[in-house]
Amino acid sequence: MNIHNKKFIRIVFFFLLFILISSCQNKEKINPKAYITNQGDNTVSIVDLKNLKVIKTLEVGIAPLGITLLNKKKLGFIGNVGTDDISVINTNTDQIIKTIKLNTAPLSLTSSPDESKVFVTDWFKNNILIISVEEMKVVNSIKVGVTPSGIAFNAKYNYLIVTNRDANTVEIYDNNNKLIKKLSTGEHPFGVYTKGKYAFTANVYDDTITIINLEKWSTQTIKVGAHPYNIMTHNNLGFVTNTVDDTLSIIDLKTNKELKQIRTGETPENLDLHKDLNLLVVTNWGSDSISIYNLNDLILIKQIKTGAQSRSFGDFILH
User: For residues 256 and 211, is the Cβ–Cβ distance under 8 A?
Assistant: First the structure.
């Protein structure tokens, strides 16, 4: 074989390899999924967000509630409050690969940006449990305030942020698990979200959200709908689930004022979004469903029936 034929074969080989890799990457991009924990029937509904339908129902532990997804590692961690354990899902195969036993009921979950750790709020013992993803077991814990509820990791500052519902506070911990700041919020803060230099809490009892500046350690409170449960932001808008009103408050983050409320299913609790598909997904505990909106105009695209008491407290969309 002469040198020209070898070059031609090499070019063809690398071209085919490029096509194969691109094909695999495209498949991942066009088949994003949402994992919906159904506390009432001990399952997780897996929703294809491109075709907007449930593609699988997976049995997990008793009363699944919290969730965090590790996009790079293709893993999902599901907190089961009825069996005091974590179900670990391989999101490529959508099979349970591990059950991590705890000595308490897991409430909310989040993960570190490098996906090496998963953090779990322990409501009953006022702890944060730290799970090593490599070892698949609890390796450490942090003593926190009263009834830790929502939890989120701020990638900008490497802060772990926790709401203490019955103390009306939010606590911020550094990368060494040291408390660096405790701030007052509205009454009974539950869900928490953080991005850039801000953190946000949804305060159930006084129908407000608290906006926290993580540089200045200043706070501002805004009125929303009845019994807000969770919050997240996108661009210059904030979205807040109002569980009693069955609505979503839309917040202008430039003026920090509520613009309007839009209807959801019954008892909306948690929410996540997929930026590439321009989708906002809300879980509806009361109507056993999720509501899917177009992020551009916030028009309802579809409401999909999932399982009993759909919750997904945490990040639940696989990107």
Answer: yes
Here the tokens at position 244 are 């009693």
Give the span between the Cα atoms of 197 and 199, in whole angstroms: 7
> Residue 7 domain-assigned?
yes
Decide if 19 is inside a domain. Answer: yes
pLDDT digits 0-9 by tens, 137-152:
999 999 999 999 999 9
Domain count, the chain: 1
Q: Positive or negative CA dihedral for 30, 240, 150, 96? A: negative
Q: Which domain holds residue 15?
A: 1-29
Contacts of 298 (CB under 8 A, 6+ apart): 250, 262, 280
Residues 289, 310: contact at Cβ < 8 Å? yes
- Whether residue 263 lies inside any domain: the answer is no
pLDDT digits (tens, 9 = 90+) for 165-223: 999 999 999 999 999 999 999 999 999 999 999 999 999 999 999 999 999 999 999 99
Distances (CA, A) of 228 to 100, 127, 144, 276: 31, 24, 23, 27
Is 66 domain-assigned? no
